[in-house]
Amino acid sequence: VQLQASGGGMVQPGGSLRLSCVASGIIFDKNVMAWYRQAPGKQRELVASITSGSSTNYDESVKGRFTISRDNAKNTVYLQMNSLKPEDTAVYYCYAQSGFWGQGTQVTVSS
Tag placement on the chain: N or C end, fewer CB within 10 Å? Predict the structure, then answer.
């Protein structure tokens, strides 16, 4: 099983990034997929999740700014992040309901 996350980087406040996570070794379209993040000195927290039927759920802090989506044909889950804030700085991890984590991708929002 592998969850390969990519798309992180450094952006200025107000900027955008799109994270991708390609899964292999799992029955992707049967899994709820999610993005978590962990900032330095803080616990890992759920950012957004999406069911196999594409129902979504967001943490209050990102509602209206982030959009989670999935492409079951490509075994890929995305996180479009707009209007980024310094407090969004963290390592972002994708997660599959089967119990597997991606390796994390760093997002830094700074002027």
Answer: C
